[in-house]
Queue: 2 jobs
Job 1
Amino acid sequence: AAKNAGKNGYRFYEASMQETLIHKLNMERSLRAAVSNEEFLLYFQPIVYLETGLVSGFEALLRWNNPQQGLVAPGEFIPLVEESGLIVPIGKWVMRAACAFARKLTNMAYADTYVAVNVSVKQLASEDFVPMVRAALHEAAVPPTMLELEITETILMNSECLTTNIAKLKELKDMGVRIALDDFGTGYSSLTYLKQLPIDVVKIDKAFVDDLTEGGKNGPLMGSIIALAHNLGLKVVAEGVETEEQRKLLREWQCDSIQGYLISRPVPEAEVLKVCMKSKDS
Ligand code: C2E
Ligand code: MG
Ligand code: MG
Ligand code: MG
């Protein structure tokens, strides 16, 4: 019986492996067609100054409107998109769409805000990344200062061509594009690296913000990270702020801006203005 179970177990394992592979191939094929089928869209989540509550910028977050599955979140397809190299054309679409949105912001008297775009390291490492960004800005007639690129900290530090990647970021920063280190505090987060990177902003990860409680041990740690960033001339954004208590504590630790469900969820473009009006009133 044990032998049978083993055999069945093995068969089952083999079948599910095959199913996973087929699912992956199908998904890759759908994703390959998704750009030309115009199935991608951007949601925007406002980032607000802690002191004034005014909007400082918007993070562009990719959504895939799959005809079969409906709206799919990036966590479910970005890994595959990176693995298959599709991140390069899709990332280009994101950059152009984000710049088009920035163009609209200037027309709506939000010219002093910025649009933050997530960039995967594979995309950064692609040969024509810098010219692609420059062209997207030019095409939309958007000043580089309205664009922020978010790079995930640990992924950048572990990347193969770290020196070239840093040089590219520096080139963009010299053009006036802002660079943010995303998901800060989740990885091995060597603080000493911070001053070697051409960055303007540190985005503290939600996981770190979640642990903030009145009198909790993470408060002072958060405080020293924020102080250190400020000493290096960097701005600090806290991600995933959900409660009034977190907002209060972050203000005490002199965080510059916050982003999270407390202010607004990511919303489609048509709803962005409504959200801005609301955050101005509160
Ligand atoms: P991220 O860049 O760290 O983006 C923040 C994520 O946290 C977003 O998830 C956002 O919806 C979510 N979030 C914001 N505030 C709150 C909150 O208060 N509570 C909770 N529970 N969640 C909050 P989303 O949109 O699912 O994106 C997930 C990740 O996918 C992003 O993490 C980013 O790494 C990646 N991503 C999104 N768009 C793109 C893109 O265009 N290109 C690339 N390469 N990656 C992208
Ligand atoms: Mg981000
Ligand atoms: Mg993040
Ligand atoms: Mg994240």
Job 2
Amino acid sequence: QGVDFSNITELEVFQEGPARVDPIANFEDAGLHPAMLNNVKLAGYETPTPIQRYCLPAIKMCYDVVAVAQTGSGKTAAYLIPILNALMGKAKKLAAPRPNPAAFREGIDQAVRAEPLVVIVCPSRELAVQVFSEARKFCYRTMLRPCVIYGGGPVMEQRAQLQKGCDVLIASPGRLIDFMNNPHVLSLRRVRYMVVDEADEMLHDDWKQDWDTIMSGGEIEEGNVRYMLFSATFPKNCRDLAKNHLAETHVRLRVGRAG
Ligand code: ADP
Ligand code: MG
């Protein structure tokens, strides 16, 4: 694809707790499902970038991850590939309707609302659309259905899309909260992975409150969810977010530029 990763050579890996991640050298070593490996090849990816070499095994080992690496270093695939790969085996089982007494009492039809397994929160519409197009490539033949929602987009169309079924939800925070407030459209009770992309862009003053709303308002089952923070920089408010919401034994990866 003509992407030059040769300037990304210096990798400082900081790991907290008992985490010990051995980087992979090739996508073939990542233990990916054949369909996922095929999607990686179809995307034109031949070798993993430094952040991907560490992120794929770290996420596979079920750690929460903070990954800080410069723009263009392949962070999107670093979380999409291992998360989608982990879910594809479980897609059918997790997507099968489970009785939810509360929803039943309120007369909510669970068959027509979205109950995603992954939520990827993106600060801007541009990023959300970009991540969605990447997610579509990696969802091919996995049974996982990606969906994107963002402010300024057509609400009814996004709603209809959600109600067709969504396993992988890419969302801007505002629109995510809007839809979460409507239990007929969206529930986060099945979420297994919560990713914040471009976390440093997201952390304006209101974001703390948005994050609390997303965490508490979505019936998220804390113990069942892995949290991931991806960013180009790691300012104080990002560190606070990580401290407050990520598991104590999370893995922190930082990729630097050589020279
Ligand atoms: P970041 O989020 O770190 O800014 P992106 O995930 O947007 O970076 O990736 C930058 C570009 O590199 C995208 O066009 C993406 O498709 C491409 N890319 C990512 N990983 C690889 C890889 N392993 N091999 C080839 N191209 C890749
Ligand atoms: Mg990115």
